[in-house]
Amino acid sequence: MKYSHSLHKHRQRTGKEGQVLHRSKRGWVWNQFFVIEEYTGPDPVLVGRLHSDVDSGDGNIKYILSGEGAGTIFVIDDRTGNIHATKTLDREEQAQYTLTAQAVARDTNKPLEPPSEFIVKVQDINDNPPEFLHGPYHARVPEMSNVGTSVIQVTATDADDPTYGNSARLVYSILQGQPYFSVEPQTGIIRTALPNMDREARQEYDVVIQAKDMGGHMGGLSGTTEVRITLTDVNDNPPKFPQSVYTMSVSEDKVPGEEVGRLKAKDLDLGENGLVAYRLIDGDGMNVFELTTDSETREAVIKLKKHVDYETKRGYSLKVEGSNPHIDSRFLTWGPYKDEATIKISVEDADEPPVFIAPSYTYEVEENAPAGAVVGRVHAKDTDAANNPVSYMIPRYTDLEKFFSISEDGLITTTKPLDRETQAWHNISVSAIEIGGHHQDAKVRVNIKVKDVNDNPPELASNNEVLMCETVSPGKVIETVSALDKDEMDHRQHFSFSLAPEVAHNQNFSLTDNSTASIYVLRKGFSRLTQDVYFLPIEINDNGFPPMSSTNTLTIRVCSCDSKDTILSCNVEPYVLPAGLSTGALIAILACIVILLAIVVLFVALRRQKKEPLIVFEEEDIRENIITYDDEGGGEEDTEAFDIATLQNPDGANGFLPRKDIKPELQFPLRPGMGRSEANSVDVDDFIKTRIADADSDPTAPPYDSIQIYGYEGRGSLAGSLSSLESVTTESDLDYDYLQSWGPRFKKLADLYGTKDCSINDVDDNEDS
Questions:
Q1: pTM of the model
Q2: What per-residue confidence (pLDDT) applies to 50?
Q3: Which of 236-245, 562-571, 584-593 tops mean pLDDT?
Q4: How far apart are CA 341 and CA 339, in angstroms?
């Protein structure tokens, strides 16, 4: 729309001074402009014209346009004020544009009017079809739903302006899916249109829905979407057995719990609606067979509950019912939701092991019965139609000692005498094997009791000693003893006690028999110094049949007690025997003692008076008595017999070095006179013995057989040399003349050392010559 006239609007106001003020309004000639979208003409489309009151048409005014799209989409003629759109506009992208216009002087660009905004609106046309933004759709509806049941609502959107014309007015229709479903034109709600739609017949439906704008009239744009509708299951089908009669078989050798057969009722429904529960409702085999349900396959499993016997009954009949545990009340009239089937079970013959008439056997046999004594008989038979003969045997592991044997007809006998006291019961097994069959065997337990025979004498229950005080009073019971019998005792049977005949009239002890034996004292004055132990034989009789008796010895020990009869000691103490030997025996003993003493004294006297030495030295050169050894010392490497530290450092040993082979505990002082010679002693034998005793009692003296080897020779000894070779050339104060009086044993020494002066003179003479 183009405006070419000016709108003059003014208001009169009274000022403070009473003047009438005139406000000049803007002199634009313009309004809200419109432009049609999607214009595709060859020339730019004229949007509108701007004109100012100050424009006199002489070209001195310049129109300027700014804002959204100014200069790119919208251009203005700066002389005339005409606005043109240079590009095609899309309302769905931008519905309106806000621009600003201003009139300025052409030569100075000075604003002649304040700037003012105006709006250019894009006018809508129907150029967008409806769209289903959330398609395709998936929906579920229960089967057998009533007509008109809502399934799902679909919604389409139109990008055109809903406030201008019918461009965005939509109408829904169904293009595919009739006659099963329908759609509401205004809301897009899909509903069922056909009754009794059965899932088992068809489960899924593909429906196509159309949305059209312009109210559905011709020329409107449209869009479509797909809806997949699935029928969900309901329990509208009862279970059904494929067969009315089932046949099964079971062998008679099957054990309870084994499976016989399976059957299953079909139900077209799914999940919980298709579950089938089974049960036995009738038949002559309800007590012989049982029914369970396999949780995975949902099959009815027939199992054996009891043993079947082909020879007794060869066939059974069962009636099974299968029903739905979950029933929909809406479809009760479609029932009943259960079915029945009959099962025929035949029993097959099998080669079974023999069967014993009794489940177990118990027999008795007397102990000590001779070998071959009859114990009892077992019997087994073949229950098969062939009725084959049966043989018997005793498994060795049940009769390790081989006490029993069995004959071909099942008669059990003993092979040796049995002892009840060793084993009172024998529990064996007997196997029965069918002859000519498949060597199947059956076993039965045979319990054999060994009957007691009175063949064991009674015995004392305890073998402990009886302790009795020396001061016991006559008539006092010191012990009560009882008896044991390995044999079985009858309730009327009892033991009887008595003293053995050899002590029946003794003066010390007696007993009282009252099923036990009370031992009491007959006298007083017992003394353990005289006799500390008494043995009392007691005879015990069991009064059985045949009667058995035994003699048992009771030991009675005499003990020392205090005034309260408390036992202090029962040990045997040493004491002086009373003189009971004869005079002749004493004289003989004394004579022997005197003779022995005389022999000892005589021997000592002879030793002292004997002049000859114990060892006779022959008159021969002393060198002949020298024993030569080829053993050599270990040298400096031998460290076993000496202290190497002392030898390597002799200066570190201050004074006396103790021996290493013994540890002296006491240092004995030298006896007076040990350091000087006994030159004046005539009895050399006593002198030697005294020296030997001193050496033996001195712990610091080395033994004569102790040889020590030293690798360190040292720097000499403070005591000097003990060699006789050096004594010739050294001055010595010793006088060896006393050796002449020591007798023949020291004659050689007297000759060597007793002629000192002569030896020196001889040496001097030789030197002079």
A1: 0.42
A2: 81
A3: 236-245
A4: 7
What are the strands of the beta sheet with 509-513, ordered from one edge?
477-481, 517-521, 509-513
Name residue, tokens 């023999």. Answer: 354
Can you tell me the distance from the alpha carbon of 644 to that of 621, in angstroms, rounded to the nearest whole number?
39
Asked if 249 contacts 345 with a C-beta cutoff of 8 angstroms, the reply is: yes
According to DSSP, residue 745 is labeled: G
Q: Which of 121, 108, 192 is nearest to 150 (CA)?
A: 192
DSSP string, 68-88: TTBTTTEEE-TTT-EEEE-S-
The predicted model gives 458-481 an average pLDDT of: 91
Q: Per-residue DSSP letters for 553-573?
A: EEEEEEEEE-TT--EEE-SPP
Look at residue 457 and give its three-state secondary structure.
Answer: coil
Picking from 540, 557, 558, the residue whose alpha carbon sits closest to that of residue 549 is 540
Give the H or E element holding residue 647. Answer: helix 644-648
User: Which is higher by pLDDT, 619 or 306?
Assistant: 306
| CA-based nearest residue to 448, from 398, 490, 491 | 398
Task: Specify whether the backbone of 743 is left (phi greater than 0), alpha (psi in -120 to 50) or beta.
Answer: left
Placement of tokens 């004055």 in the chain: 525
How many Cα atoms occupy the beta-carbon half-sphere of 766 within 13 Å? Answer: 6
- For residues 714-733, give the mean pLDDT: 50
Higher pLDDT, 408 or 626: 408
Q: What is the mean pLDDT of residues 344-351?
A: 89
Alpha-carbon Rg for the chain, nearest whole angstrom, is: 73
Q: Alpha carbon 557 to chain centroid distance?
A: 60
pLDDT digits (tens, 9 = 90+) for 542-551: 888 888 899 9
Question: How far, in Å, CA of 67 to CA of 74, rounded?
Answer: 9
Cα distance from N-terminal residue to C-terminal residue, the chain: 189
| Percent of residues, the chain, with pLDDT higher than 90 | 40
Residue 166 has pLDDT above 90, yes or no: no
Measure Cα distances from 324 to 239, 334, 340, 365, 688 in Å.
7, 13, 12, 66, 133
Three-class secondary structure of residue 195 per DSSP? coil
**Contacts with 485 (C-beta within 8 Å, 6 or more apart), sequence order:** 456, 457, 458, 459, 495, 542, 544, 548
- Partner residues linked to 551 by β-bridges: 539
**Which pair of tokens denotes residue 112?**
């002649």
Q: Inform me whether the pLDDT recorded for 660 exceeds 60.
A: no
Name 182's Cβ contacts closer than 8 Å, sequence gap at least 6: 174, 190, 191, 193
Whether 489 has a pLDDT exceeding 90, the answer reads no
| pLDDT over threshold 50, residue 129 | yes
Note the pLDDT tens digit of each residue in 575-615: 433 445 567 778 889 999 999 999 999 988 888 776 545 44
Contact 470, 532 (CB under 8 A): no
Q: How far apart are CA 56 and CA 61, in angstroms?
A: 8
Classify 214 in phi/psi space as left (phi over 0), alpha (psi -120 to 50) or beta: left
Dihedral class, residue 298 (left if φ above 0, else alpha if ψ from -120 to 50, else beta): left
Q: Which of 377, 380, 378, 391 is nearest to 437 (CA)?
A: 391
